[in-house]
Amino acid sequence: MKFPLLIKAVALALVFLAGIAAALAQTPPGAAPQAGQRGKDVMWMATADALAERMLDLAGVTDKDYVIDLGSGDGVLVIAAAKRGARALGIEYDQGLYELSKRRATEVGVAARTSFIKGDIFESDLSAASVITLYLTESVNLRLRPRLFALKPGTRIVSNSFQLGAWRADDSATAISFKALLAPFLESTKDHCFFFCTAYLWIVPANVEGRWRIVGGELVLRQSFQIVSGVVVMGGKSVPLHGRLRGQVISFTAGNTDYVGQVGDGRIDGTTVRNGVATPWNATLSAAAPNAS
């Protein structure tokens, strides 16, 4: 479902501006947070329950995942992930929210699959995550982007409302919140989705930029985040290629040939399809280049 970007921008601006007056101190231990409450990097705003579920759906979270929520607030995403059987960690700077999250996880019976750290998201180790969730601002997301991009290929990153600049999302989904329509008439509402909110998904791509040996020639790959370009050189001829990465899976087209492959340690193995005929192919890295960011 599509909505005008202007409406979305105005809605987000209104909710953040409306909360500034309430944002003067950290949460008292055990108390519920207030919309607009100031934090170290961003003010607290609730993630709507509907969007929390949509974010986890978009990332395909299962009981095999380890989810880390950056700026975990009252723990809604950590708890929602744990209810799916995943292990989940929340990193939160505010002492009161940290304590509140632990209590809520215990109350709903998921304490064994959750943990919380009172700490700084810029100083915390994220390397074990298979899924990262966040509801920050785009400026904070951009500060985090180099660290997120450096995570292991295939790591899924899901953001509420805000993107990662030039690193365009691989997918998105919208959650509808009818409860938000009643927000002006309620003294307190946890849902600040303003009728609709969007979740964005990124899948950390493998680093493929460089020169690769293939049978009968060479593959020269350039990379801008998950977008791939370059040339296939065979028989002294260069054919431009265009494609993308989705984690460790690369797909691109060069001339009338489609390539799909799995990126491993210095190697790509896959299949080409030309005129309906599938043929195995592989490539071996001969000269790597730093990953693009």
Give your account of this protein's structure.
It is a single chain. The chain has helices at 5-19, 49-59, 76-83, 95-107, 138-149; strands spanning 66-70, 87-92, 114-118, 131-134, 156-160, 171-177, 195-203, 210-214, 217-224, 227-234, 237-246, 249-254, 257-263, 267-274, 277-288. By secondary structure, it is an alpha+beta fold. The strands form 2 sheets. Strands 8-9-10-11-12-13-14-15 form an 8-stranded antiparallel beta barrel. A hairpin with a 2-residue loop joins strand 11 (237-246) and strand 12 (249-254). Helix 2 (49-59) packs across helix 3. The chain starts with a helix and ends in a 5-residue tail after the last strand. The relative contact order is 0.11. Residues 9-25 have low confidence and may be disordered.
Number of helix segments? 5
Oligomer category: single chain
Strand count, sense and closure of the main sheet? 8 strands, antiparallel, barrel
* Architecture per CATH nomenclature, i.e. the level-2 architecture of the largest domain: 3-Layer(aba) Sandwich
Strand order in space, largest sheet: 8-9-10-11-12-13-14-15
Overall mean confidence score, pLDDT: 85
Distance between the termini: 31 Å
The CATH topology name of the largest domain reads Rossmann fold
Cα shape: elongated
Q: Which consecutive residue ranges, at least 5 long each, have pLDDT under 50? A: 9-25
According to CATH, the homologous superfamily of the largest domain is Vaccinia Virus protein VP39
CATH class of the largest domain: Alpha Beta
Tally of separate domains: 2
- Global structural class: alpha+beta
